[in-house]
């Protein structure tokens, strides 16, 4: 039997709710298949008040073994380092996180907040929030760059705002089966099998990206959102278009730009605009593409764009989609 | 007199502490305290107005679509956007789908599992309710686990992902669905209707329920006729446990109204659920005017530049946290919501019960009349809303006109002011936005939990939740389950209290 404790710091609860959407297995099946005991979770557990404090103290004193400590939300250090912007069970949450991380076999940061600081830690960071082992791009965060859990692993990050339930369950199942090693993690301590491709993999608009056919305004199925509307899908590492959301869709499929929420620098702001340099080329290029290569490729691609892509595919009668460029 | 702080008070969204003072077994004072501050309003200052569509859903992981809808509506007003009817239908579906998952998850995961409490062990139907509602193992608990997420699938078809989609934008919605996607959503909703709502919740046909159950007596009759539904069991157990006598509160119901019915420019005029204020005792309805909304900080860890006794309308609102522990009058970082009516400051109740009573739903009005605004009527109202919403979503999707636009690009505006008022799962939610030089100058969010759980205002008026707790007799001071029922019946959400915190 493995034990899990799930706590929320500077959080919106979104990762918890996302976790509840899991399918094949769902959360209840997952707990039962893997013989998991959920010691406590703020939204799901019966125990309240004093009983929770007693449980937490027993974990810290190691009277109760803790295999996996899952933390959602930022570690809140404000105001002035006191942590009093986030009190939990009578103490600043940061103090609980510090003590519990020391006794857990594995420590998992679920969501962009716990991984990197996310929304609360964004400029001007009014709550002095930080991630468990990263603050934005910088390694360290709350627990420090040298932190290792009792099984000698750093914090395992499952970023995303929120994290997809399948990413969470995959990570947990690998840990429980002792199949997760340090080599499985990338430089941001994310599981490579999940975060080594970009959001663009599997995006139905990818063909528009290839031929540089830009979407100029929202509300249309056709056209790529990268060139004008701020989509970060070509340089954000996430499997959102391969492992679909809620079994159904993804942001780019419904015409919403990717906001890069699995990355350390989320939120970058100015989300619905593609910032460009003076020659009109997007400032941020697709992952691994040089400026020279991009310029050459774009010229050729645009010139060879098939006619059917610059027309509305299905519903509108105009010869050319006036929302396409 | 004894004082008790319940910390953490779990199974609400986020962290909550409740401080109650007892005289013997009677609650004589109550303070509701959130322990978390995330500073979203401060983060939004100086940003591009559209950034609010990405940031504000992150206020809350369970009702992000409500924040998104409120945010986009405020921007509709600022940009004087024309919103096509197709966009309104899809926006409405997103909002309702999210509310349905919330109302079910709240009922089963957060509220009902309290029936396991020691107090109820010798109740005649204890075994039956355990079989149904026990966490993880209960039959209805499991059904809720399986079915509530199907509403998030409906959401994702048009919103991309749930939680934290950002498909609603000023001028419409980013999606442009094909008929097969509309069909898929309809099929999920029909599946929910037939195989979950009718089988598990209601025990009988939804259409019959909505057509014929118009009073408290009709409801009792329904429970008699369809004994196997959870609704009947909730009524039966709730009446035995006196849930109908718990948590009356202010008796004043507030709703901002919800779901526009027709195309509009800037701001909607007609909604399926009308806005207003309803006085339960007097059975009196009054119009709502957002200009009368005020926020105070005299009891909150904030300062106002004009002094802490001043009330500010959200357009002039300020968010300056200041943890001044020396000031003993301050105990919370919840700003205090009050509504100015006839020269008085009122502290109303918000939520499903308020929404449905203000709009004049006959069953809910009679429920309030017969068993008061109470724990039981709140739980029933939340489930009735799911039934109404499921039908309304089907209607909106059936009326979707493929080929007509879902978005009309608004012209750019350098400055302006706008507000967006919606009914979130927990009740009236408002965003007030001021834009200057194409940047956000001020962004104020007033949440339903804040409306329900404000601290005292300068005149000493208490919030609805404090009133709902004060006077409650608990069966055991060391096991004040009645306090838990009252707080949880409101579906409290502390994460959405963007400005709430308290020091111990």
Structural class of chain A: alpha/beta
Largest contact between protein chains? A-B, 79 and 84 residues
SSE order of chain A, as H and E? EHHEHEEEEHEHEEEEHHHH
Q: What is the number of helical segments of chain B per DSSP (H or I, 4+ residues)? A: 16
Structural class of chain B: alpha+beta
Gap from first CA to last CA of chain B:
20 Å
Mean pLDDT value of chain A:
95
As residue ranges, the low-confidence spans of chain A are none
Give the neighbour order of strands across the main sheet of chain B: 1-2-3
Largest sheet of chain B: 3 strands, antiparallel
Question: Shape of chain A, please?
Answer: elongated
- The beta-strand count of chain A equals 11
Rg calc of chain A: 22 Å
- Unreliable stretches of chain B, pLDDT < 50, 5 or more residues? 497-504
Main sheet characteristics of chain A: 5 strands, parallel
- Helix fraction of chain B? 25-40%
Q: Report helical residue fraction of chain A.
A: 10-25%
Structure description:
The complex is a heterodimer of chains A (325) and B (504). Chain A has helices at residues 14-20, 27-33, 50-60, 93-103, 112-116, 165-176, 192-195, 206-210, 291-303, and strands spanning 2-8, 36-40, 68-72, 75-76, 87-88, 91-92, 106-110, 129-130, 134-135, 138-139, 156-158. The model of chain A has no long low-confidence stretch (mean pLDDT 95). Helices cover 23% and strands 11% of the residues of chain A. Chain B is α+β, with helices and mostly antiparallel strands and 504 residues long. Helices cover 38% and strands 17% of the residues of chain B. Chain B has helices at 40-44, 52-55, 64-79, 85-111, 126-133, 139-159, 179-202, 206-212, 216-225, 230-240, 352-358, 362-371, 375-398, 448-452, 464-469, 481-489, and strands at residues 2-6, 16-23, 26-34, 82-83, 168-169, 172-173, 252-255, 258-260, 264-265, 271-273, 276-279, 284-286, 293-296, 336-341, 344-346, 416-424, 427-436, 439-446. Chain B has a three-stranded antiparallel beta sheet with strand order 1-2-3. Chain B has a three-stranded antiparallel beta sheet with strand order 7-11-12. In chain B, helix 4 (85-111) packs antiparallel against helix 6. Chain B is globular. At the A-B interface, helix 1, helix 2 and strand 5 of A face helix 1, helix 2, helix 4, helix 6 and strand 6 of B.
